[in-house]
Amino acid sequence: MELLPLLGGAVTAAVLSAALASAIYLFLARAKPPETQRQRALVAELEQSLQELRSAIADLYERNAGQPSVTVEALVQRAGTERLDRLQAAMELRTQHRERDAIYQLQAAFEPELHSSERAELEILVGAGFLNLSELEEAEGYYRQALDHAIEAGEKQTQAAALGSLGIVYAQRGELAKAEEHHKKALAIDEQIGNRLGQANDLGNLGLVYRQRGELDKAEEHHKKALAIDEQIGNRLGQAHDLGNLGNLYFARGELDKAEELYKQALAIHQEIGNRLSEAKDLGNLGFVYAARGQPEAAEEYLRMALAIQQEIGDRLGEAIQLEELGVVYAQRRDPAHALEHLRRARDIFAEIGASRQLDRVDRLIAWLEPPERPKAP
């Protein structure tokens, strides 16, 4: 039996128990299912670690897919040369995945004479940077300031963007009731002002909240509504994200053929429009499908394609997570040496970029895979 991925969905207790027992069998080279107290404890620890890994992969991509769009019309219209240069530099740095440097450029663009509408737009851009870095407290602070300034300026679209962004922060924290509330408020505003792009984002984000709760039918309904709007307005990037979210939902249900079909549709669009980061996401998702089917060779092939793109575009966090996932695939293939090699490479990157939560997780996996030290002879 192969270990089933736990990407963003509910897995039945029986399947999860069997999969984890199999994983411990592989990691510990036992001849029988776990029976001792230590083995049972390791099963529980492995469950937590793998859930964190799959959630990290899902969060990495869904956060990029679901951030509400915000116009920077006011910010650009009144900007002088220096501010425009900083904005342009920040956007270039963001495309290079140098998020911290982009934030510094954006923060330097704040000026005392900024109008509330300009300040709100800039605060949302800075908040998005901190969200991409998973620094949720900082992101929340900027989004709250943006909401206050947007209300002061009477900018409805920016209010909706701030509310939706706060909803993403709360979803990342697991505060799903607050996330749902903020996404619904954002949706109401976008419907009121006729912002179809915003409506699609809001519906998609609500779908992610419902999937996180395990309400898969409700999630499917919202993702399909988002897809319909994105198709109507010709938003190809949005369509691809909606298809990917529906693929994740079917994956969670165990409907692997449907998930594979949707991931391939999303991949075709992302390749068409040249979105390399999302292309890597789709390839990685296809790798998860093949791993779930018990096809580790195919899983490795797709994960390696995803890894190559992430290395090419300089996405260090994504690179490390794919290396970690490849380590798990090698463990499934009963190849602990290659598993440890990839996990250690992932660990080096996590340490380099200061990803402490991911570092703790990969350290646990390495500890389980490393052979125990032989007692020294007296």
Model description:
This protein is mostly helical and 378 residues long. It has 2 domains: 1-66 and 273-370, Serine Threonine Protein Phosphatase 5, Tetratricopeptide repeat (Alpha Horseshoe); 70-222, Tetratricopeptide repeat domain (Serine Threonine Protein Phosphatase 5, Tetratricopeptide repeat). It is 80% helix and 0% strand. It contains 18 helices and no strands. It has helices at 13-28, 37-66, 73-77, 81-95, 99-108, 116-132, 136-153, 156-173, 176-193, 196-213, 216-233, 236-253, 256-273, 276-292, 296-313, 316-332, 336-353, 356-369. α1 (13-28) packs across α2 (37-66) and α10 (196-213) packs antiparallel against α11. The radius of gyration is 22 Å and the shape is globular.
- Enumerate the spans where pLDDT stays under 50 for 5 or more consecutive residues: 1-34, 53-65
At the fold tier of CATH, the topology name of the largest domain is Serine Threonine Protein Phosphatase 5, Tetratricopeptide repeat
Rg, alpha carbons: 22 Å
Shape: globular
CATH architecture of the largest domain: Alpha Horseshoe
Task: Give a quick set of tags describing it.
single chain; 378 residues; mainly alpha; Serine Threonine Protein Phosphatase 5, Tetratricopeptide repeat; 2 domains; 18 helices
Write the layout of secondary structure elements.
Blueprint: H1 13-28, H2 37-66, H3 73-77, H4 81-95, H5 99-108, H6 116-132, H7 136-153, H8 156-173, H9 176-193, H10 196-213, H11 216-233, H12 236-253, H13 256-273, H14 276-292, H15 296-313, H16 316-332, H17 336-353, H18 356-369
Helix pairs in contact: 1-2, 2-16, 2-18, 4-5, 5-6, 6-7, 6-8, 7-8, 8-9, 8-10, 9-10, 10-11, 10-12, 11-12, 12-13, 12-14, 13-14, 14-15, 15-16, 16-17, 17-18
